[in-house]
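Give me the fold.
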Amino acid sequence: MIDFHCHILPDIDDGSDSMESSLAMARQADADGVTHIVATPHGSFNGLDELLERRDARLKELKAALQAENIPLEILPGMEYFADGHSSNAGLDHPACRCGLPEYEERPLLVELPFTIDIAFAANVFFNAQMSGIPLVLAHPERYDGFLKHVEQLMELQDKGLYLQFNSSNFKGSFFSRAVPKAILRLVEHDREHVLVGSDAHHPEFRPAVLTHARERIVAAFGEDCWRLVSDVTPRRLLGLE
């Protein structure tokens, strides 16, 4: 399994605050059956070059620690790029912001939008990505305001080639609301070829690095083949692991 969205790098954003925390998250992921994690620290136009240098340094440190601890987990470089009306093109123009093996030219960009913005703004960002020939992955659309009202629009964007990355924890819903998990499953059913999953993990206890909830719901609804597609086949292709 491939975790497409994880804040596992130590001391770089609001995710892991230490190497000990990062290793705890890595052990969680390994025990859950995850084989690859895309390290996606928050980034934006401001201070981008400095952030990329820090990301690469933390990535090197974490890889060395994983090897020393005999944790068989591969960490790939990436970023959760914050795109608003003023900075959306910067991430598209900077190859190092994209997710996957650096030598793979067709790797995608994981984009986060302002949570209060109309989800239709994704269409504008996606159009720019298409013009650049870059696959675009929209991070956790289920977290944006008005998600339940924009499911049809997201389906239209899937049809045009936009990938949707859902957080595993949001598949479980709550006692008060099961509408969000149902809407996520509608989008999986509509176009499973353009769905990815991630833990969006920030902390080993409060936001752990596991894909369990997504796996249980997707397998129950659509079977093992669908789960293998969204958790391994599609991300492996996008990240250049084939």
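The mean pLDDT is 93.
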